[in-house]
Automatic annotation (TrEMBL):
CDD domains: HisKA. Residues 172-417 form the Histidine kinase domain. Residues 115-153 form a coiled coil. It catalyses: ATP + protein L-histidine = ADP + protein N-phospho-L-histidine. Its EC number is 2.7.13.3. One of its GO terms (molecular function) is kinase activity. The keyword Ribosomal protein does not apply. This is histidine kinase. It is an enzyme of class 2 (transferase). The keyword Metal-binding does not apply. Keywords: Coiled coil, Kinase, Phosphoprotein, Transferase.
Amino acid sequence: MRNDDLLRNWYPILQENMIEGKSVAIGIFSFEENILYANNAMNHFLNVDSENQKPVNAFVNPEFDVFVNKEEQGLVFDGSLTIGNRFDVSYSLESKVYRLGGEILVFAEANLLQLFAENKKMSTLNQQVNNLQRELIKEKRNLQYTLSELKDTQQMLVQSEKMNAMGQLVAGVAHEINNPIGFVYSNLFSWKGIGEDLVNAYLDLEQLIKNQENEKLFGEAKKIREENDLDYQIEDMADVFEESKTGLDRVKKIVEDLRTFSRLDESAMKKINLTENLQSTISIAKTKFNEKAANFNFECPDELYVECYPGQLNQAILNVLINATQAIDYAGRIEMSLIEFEEEVQISIKDDGCGIAENNKEKIFDPFYTTKPIGTGTGLGLSITHKIICEVHQGKIEVESEPNKGAKFIISIPKVISL
């Protein structure tokens, strides 16, 4: 069977599907460009208003007048026809235009191969847009994280500057106190010598009068001795001296602890006796211990040497001690220990205070997080401690706690920091 005969048999069905199809646009127009007939596809491309049957779009390239002005009958155009609104809508269709009498027949169809190619390009562009969107979201998150880090760092720097200024003030005060203490300490021993000399001189004079066997004069001397309670004064003089010496020794120790704690001359990494360092920090915290009448105990070896940043490490430990003091009730207990391992040392600080809720454990080291009343805490103490221990000293902090059963902070730092 010939193809013509085969198609003739199917012609009615093919005609129906072609007219109703969405890829083939068929339209019949008057010379005034009025629509005499248009199938669904042509109505779609012309964007025909369903109410008044007026097209929104028009023939753009070539324009409809080109077809009207042709004198010949039959096929007047064969090529790419653009239909659109000259602004944001444009359809390019493979078309054939016929002129029959006073009517124009437009037969247009989408170039499927071109559409597939354009669709492929569009898919590629969409994928690229999606990739760019993901990159933008990632960059946005990175910028948000960086901004958050910058804000945290800014607050840390402010706090660090405050601590640095405080350290300078402490070191200055310690230096200024140290000089007059030296004078007083020296004069105390001079006063002791002078007092002993005066007592001995009086006793020698009294013995001399007694040897002269002048009862009246000896009685007067005895009366002066009794009226001024010289026997008690002589005995008390040694006690006054020892108490004064003990007090000055304690002041000297506090000043030395202040100087050790501030360690402005040791801002760089240095090998130190950690036991001595921690004892100076404890001495600074004793004022807070006394406010709570805290029972404090520190177990440590006599000497334990590590490489660290002394000033920063002192600040980190002090922050934990202050937190422990604030957590305990009056006359509560704080236990601290220093243990040496093969490659690291462990500082443990345990209290019997209010403890930490499970849902707060992961947040206690976040900057500005605090459970204290407004105005009583900045939320930076433990955050600074975490940075000093984990980042500066390459160590770690573990927290063990249950509500109302106290808390235990276990701080581990290497004996030698790898640079």
